[in-house]
From TrEMBL, chain A:
Record key words, sorted: Endoplasmic reticulum, Membrane, Transmembrane, Transmembrane helix
Family per record: Belongs to the SPCS1 family.
Transmembrane regions listed in the UniProt entry: 23-41, 47-64
Role, per record: Component of the signal peptidase complex (SPC) which catalyzes the cleavage of N-terminal signal sequences from nascent proteins as they are translocated into the lumen of the endoplasmic reticulum. Dispensable for SPC enzymatic activity.
Native species: Paramormyrops kingsleyae
Oligomeric form and interacting partners: Component of the signal peptidase complex paralog A (SPC-A) composed of a catalytic subunit SEC11A and three accessory subunits SPCS1, SPCS2 and SPCS3. Component of the signal peptidase complex paralog C (SPC-C) composed of a catalytic subunit SEC11C and three accessory subunits SPCS1, SPCS2 and SPCS3. Within the complex, interacts with SPCS2 and SPCS3. The complex induces a local thinning of the ER membrane which is used to measure the length of the signal peptide (SP) h-region of protein substrates. This ensures the selectivity of the complex towards h-regions shorter than 18-20 amino acids.
Localisation: Endoplasmic reticulum membrane
Signal peptide residues on this chain, from the entry's feature table: none
InterPro entries registered for this protein in UniProt: Spc1/SPCS1 (IPR009542)
CC terms in the record's Gene Ontology section: signal peptidase complex
Pfam families: SPC12 (PF06645)
Record's compositionally biased regions (Basic and acidic residues): 86-97
GO biological process, one term: signal peptide processing
Protein name: Signal peptidase complex subunit 1
UniProtKB/TrEMBL annotation, chain B:
Chief location: endoplasmic reticulum
Protein name: Signal peptidase complex subunit 3
Any one annotated GO CC term: signal peptidase complex
Spans traversing the lipid bilayer: 12-32
Family: Belongs to the SPCS3 family.
GO BP terms in the entry: protein targeting to ER; signal peptide processing
Functional description taken from the UniProt entry: Essential component of the signal peptidase complex (SPC) which catalyzes the cleavage of N-terminal signal sequences from nascent proteins as they are translocated into the lumen of the endoplasmic reticulum. Essential for the SPC catalytic activity, possibly by stabilizing and positioning the active center of the complex close to the lumenal surface.
Localization: Endoplasmic reticulum membrane
Record key words, sorted: Endoplasmic reticulum, Membrane, Signal-anchor, Transmembrane, Transmembrane helix
Topology within the bilayer: Single-pass type II membrane protein
Pfam families: SPC22
C-alpha cells in the first residue's frame, strides 16, 4: 500500500515550486477581487464566498499535481565520484566561533 | 520538503486568510451605515384591566391591551451584510415606583429576501403588557417605539431605534371583567 502511494510522482523542482506558489496566490487573489466586487454589486456575500471557492478549486487543479511545467529545471547533480576518492572528501567544518566579548 | 500535502496546506491557508480579509471587507463596507428608517405606529384601541398577577406578590396589577398598526419600509436596511432583522415593539413609561419601565409587546423576525414592506393592521400584542403595580391607570405618557437588531454576516450586532414614536394614554378607569 505504501509503495503504491510513494510511486506516484509528486516532485517539483525548485523553480517549479516557486512558480506553483505564484500561480495559486495569483488565482486566489484575482478571484477574491472579482468575488468581492461582484458580491458588493449584487449584495450577496454568499457569491463572494462561492467565487473564492471556485478559485481555490482551480488553483488546486493547477498547482497540486506536478504538471510538466513545474519540472523544467531539474537540479544538475554532480556526477558520482569514483569510490577511491570518497573517503578523502571529508571537509573540515567551517564554523568560525564569534570572538568572545571581553569586558 | 515540498510535497503535495505541503502545497495543499499552504494553498488552503492562503485561501482562508483571503476569505477572512474579504469578510472583514464586507463588515467595513457596511459598518458606518445608518440603519434607521421612519416607522409609523398608530394605536387604535386601548383597554385597561386590573387582574391578579400570579407572578408577583398576590396583589392585583394593571394589565394593558393594545391594538396597533405598524407601517414601515425596511428595504433600505438590507444590504449584503444583513441576514435578518429582529423587530420589537416596546412601551416606555414612567411610574411612581420606577423612573423607566420598558415592556416588549410584540416582535417579528424579517429574514433576508422576505417581504420588506411592513404594513400591519390591527395587531394585538404578543406579550402581556403587565405593570408591576398600578402604574398604567391614568398614565398619560406611554411611548411606543419600534426597534430592531440587525443580524449581520460579519461584524457587530447593531441595535437601531426606529424614528417615529406613538404616545398614548391609558384611561382612568378599569374595564370590568364580565362574568359569563
Amino acid at each position: 500500500m505504501q509503495s503504491i502511494f510513494s510511486s506516484i510522482p509528486t516532485h517539483m523542482d525548485y523553480k517549479g515550486q516557486k512558480l506553483a506558489e505564484q500561480i495559486f496566490q495569483g488565482i486566489i487573489l484575482v478571484s477574491a477581487v472579482i468575488g468581492f466586487i461582484y458580491g458588493l454589486i449584487i449584495e450577496q456575500f454568499g457569491w463572494t464566498v462561492y467565487i473564492v471557492l471556485g478559485g481555490f478549486a482551480i488553483s488546486c487543479l493547477l498547482t497540486l499535481p506536478p504538471w510538466p511545467v513545474y519540472r523544467r529545471n531539474p537540479l544538475a547533480w554532480q556526477p558520482v565520484l569514483a569510490e577511491s576518492q570518497g573517503e578523502a572528501r571529508e571537509k573540515p567544518q567551517e564554523n568560525p566561533k564569534k570572538p568572545r566579548k571581553h569586558k | 520538503m515540498n510535497t503535495v500535502l505541503s502545497r495543499a496546506n499552504s494553498l488552503f491557508a492562503f485561501s482562508l486568510s483571503v476569505m477572512a480579509a474579504l469578510t472583514f471587507g464586507c463588515f467595513i463596507t457596511t459598518a458606518f451605515k445608518d440603519r434607521s428608517v421612519p416607522v409609523d405606529i398608530h394605536v387604535s384601541k386601548v383597554m385597561l384591566k386590573n387582574v391578579d398577577d400570579f407572578t408577583g406578590p398576590r396583589e392585583r396589577s394593571d394589565l394593558g391591551f393594545l391594538t396597533f398598526d405598524i407601517s414601515a419600509d425596511l428595504q433600505p436596511i438590507f444590504d449584503w451584510n444583513v441576514k435578518q432583522l429582529f423587530l420589537y415593539l416596546s412601551a416606555e413609561y414612567t411610574t411612581k415606583s420606577n423612573a423607566l419601565n420598558q415592556v416588549v409587546l410584540w416582535d417579528k423576525i424579517v429574514l433576508r429576501g422576505e417581504q420588506t414592506k411592513l404594513y400591519l393592521k390591527d395587531m394585538k400584542s404578543k406579550y402581556f403588557f403587565f405593570d408591576d403595580g398600578n402604574g398604567l391607570r391614568a398614565n398619560k405618557n406611554i411611548t411606543l417605539t419600534l426597534s430592531w437588531n440587525v443580524v449581520p454576516n460579519a461584524g457587530i450586532l447593531p441595535l437601531v431605534i426606529g424614528s417615529g414614536h406613538e404616545s398614548l394614554t391609558f384611561p382612568d378607569t378599569y374595564e370590568t371583567t364580565k362574568s359569563y
